[in-house]
Amino acid sequence: MSCSVVTTERQFTAVIKAKVPFGGIPDAQRSARATLAASLASLDAGAVGRGITRFRTPADGALDMEMGSIVARRFQDRGDVVLSELPAGRAAHYALKGPFEGLPGAWQTLFEWCNREGVTPSGVNWEIYGTAQDADLYALLA
């Protein structure tokens, strides 16, 4: 698969926010997704789409993360589940085909491509998950 610049549209998301050290990401993902699954039906957010994780450039060994799902419309925050969005704009894109264990290498591929192509990521990044064997990676461009 190759990298490219694409135009993204704003999409509403239902997420749980957390600052997570790198070693805690798998546990944080599992916990957030379980909480979200228990809450989605009661949110009045419309149809639920693919799972997502949005994060900012790492700082101090941790990620500011939003773990959740795409939803059809705005809703009122409920407990830890809050409304957010994936941004509209120009983004660098890479499609990972393979297990999620390949995500760190896929991000490295995308950021190295940005460097070679002279495009500058803004620090806002996200993953949209397909099956257990693929994900679309996006880095919003400055």
Tell me about the largest β-sheet: 8 strands, antiparallel
Low-confidence residue ranges: none
Secondary structure category: alpha+beta
CATH class: Alpha Beta
Shape call? globular
Helix and strand sequence: EEHEEEEHEE
- The count of helical stretches stands at 2
What is the number of strand segments?
8
CATH fold annotation:
Multidrug-efflux Transporter 1 Regulator Bmrr, Chain A
* Integer tally of domains: 1
Q: Helical amount among residues, as a percent range?
A: 10-25%
Strand content: over 45%
Gap from first CA to last CA: 24 Å
Radius of gyration: 15 Å
Average pLDDT for all residues: 93
Major sheet: arrangement of strands: 1-6-8-7-3-4-2-5
CATH homologous superfamily heading: Regulatory factor, effector binding domain
Please give the CATH architecture: Alpha-Beta Barrel
Short overview:
With 142 residues, this protein is an alpha+beta fold.
Could you explain the architecture of this structure?
Helix content is 21%, strand content 46%. The protein is an alpha+beta fold and 142 residues long. Strand 7 and strand 8 form a beta hairpin. The longest helix has 15 residues, at 25-39. The mean pLDDT is 93.
